[in-house]
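Sorry to interrupt, but I need a hand with the structure work. Please put the record directly below this note.
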Amino acid sequence: MQPDSRFKQLGKRFWANVRIISQVLGYTEQGQQRIKTYSLAEMKHALERVGLHSAHLEMDGKPTELSQKLVTYFEYRAELLNTLVEPLLMDREEAANLYQSLKSRYHSTLPEPMNKQKGEKRTPQYFTAMINMIIEANRDGLDCNYDPRTLTMVTKNNTPLRTLARRLDGCFPSHINPTAVWEIKEYYNTTTFGSRVADGVYESLLDGLELEELREHEQIEIQHLLMIDSHYTWWECGRSYLCRIIDMLNMGYVDEVLFGKEIVERLPRIVQGWVAIERAKQQNRISPSS
C-alpha cells in the first residue's frame, strides 16, 4: 500500500487531530472486527470530552475544510483496512504454503532464516524468507544486506553524516549509504498483541522520523519500506495499530507498507525500482575520464 495523494503534505496539525479523535472514540466498532469512521458531531464531542475546543471543525454551522478532510480520511482508512488489508494478512499455515510455493519458484541460495522457537515450533521465518527470496530474484546482481547486524550509516566525503539509532532488518545494497531500508514484522507464533509487537510499530516511526530529518536537512532520500503479517496478531488483536500504521504511511514516515500476500505482486516491482535508482547512482559516480 502506498500513501494516498489526498492526505500527503497536510501538516502536523491535521495528524494531531487524527490521533486524538481516534484515541477518544476508539478505532474499532464495539463487538465487530471493523474499523470505525466518525461523523463531524462525533469528532466535536471527542475533543470536548478531553477539554479541547472544537470550533476549528465547524464555523457558522458549517464544517470547515479541516473537518471535511478528517471525515474523508477516516472513511478512507476504514475502507482500506476493512476491504483490502484484512484479506491480505495470512495465518501461519497459509504463510507456510505460500513459502513452499515461492521456494519452488525461486530456488533461493540464501540461508533460511529460522524463528527463535524450540522443538516442533522451530520453523523458517516464513514471511522474512519469502521477502528475501523475492529481493534476491529481482536485485539484478547488485549487493543486498538481508540481515545487517550493524547500524545504518550515511556518509559524506568518507565521513559519517548520519547514523540511524536502530539496526534495520534489511538494506539495499548496503547498510552504508543505502538506496532502501526495510523492517519486517511477522508474528505467527504470538497468542496476544503484546508490548513487543506494539514497540515494533513505534520503532518504524522512529526510523521514519530520522529519515525525514535526513531528507529535509541533507536532501538525501532513502526509501523506507515496512512489511507485516499475521492475521491473528494484526487483525484480531491489533487493529488499532493497523490504523496507526496507515496514519504513519500517510504522514510520510514510511514510503510503502506491504501486508502479507501483497509481497508476491508488489515487492518485485519495488525492488526493480531500487535497482534503477542504484544503477543511476553508479553511472553518476563514473567520471567522463574513466
Observations:
- The longest helix spans residues 65-88.
- The chain has a mean pLDDT of 94.
- The chain has two domains: 5-88, 92-283.
